[in-house]
Amino acid sequence: MNTSMITSSVTMGQLQQQLDTISNNLANADRTGYKRREHSFSDLLAQQVNNQSAQQYEGGRLTPLGIRVGSGAKIAQTALRMEQGSIQQTERSLDFALTDRETFFPVQGEEGEVLYTRDGAFYLSPDPANPDQQVIVTGDGNELLSGEGTPFVVPAGTRDFQLTNEGMMEAVLANGESVNIGELELARITKPQLLEGAGGSMFTLPDLAALDIEAENVIELVAGNEAQVQQRALEQSNVDFSKEFADMLNAQRAYSFNARSVSQGDQMMGLINNLR
Description:
Residues 103-169 form the Flagellar hook protein FlgE/F/G-like D1 domain. This protein is of the alpha+beta class. The protein contains two helices and 20 strands.
């Protein structure tokens, strides 16, 4: 296999990863709170071949001397884009839209770990510890955690919810009485590029100690007051269809060019092998 075929095949593998990411963005365009991912590319190792030994014979040359032989391109970074999505009014008391780009709702994972999401569509589910009570959960059943790190326990007979200016969650009973069920505390992630996908709109943080990073330099707990949370509304995904389709077409065209290079290289090698 010649150099051009190797270069093209390496680049095709990286372009396929970009197409997979674009496809994932488009598939989740309607998912509440979803944040798109974006690739950036860089060159692989390149070699400079100085094949012009007599520079005096290169009079009038505008391009640099020599030939730069590359090894293709690679994905340098997959960035999580945290631009604010549009806010849609729902008039549902358990819908919350985050208006701060760095904040997340802390929820409990299946194994007891803390996950983070910007999907503010919550529901009621029976409390496993007390069938007469309910807890607030995400659409996937993950329990929303209060400021004390415990689930919100909703008393029986609750007909509505109210988020106060101080970030306290109140359950409104059938008789009109309001009961404080806990503080809505948010997690502000100051280094969102450390977040790892945990399925859907869920994220998790890696082992910060293993990365020699202090937790207080990455995550900060803040009260979910009116300045950061809008009740009865949801944040839509920040996927831009026009940009994603344009990126997809560009990636497909680049993939096609590199595939053609592999095909032409194979044809040239076939011609050489058939020489008598």
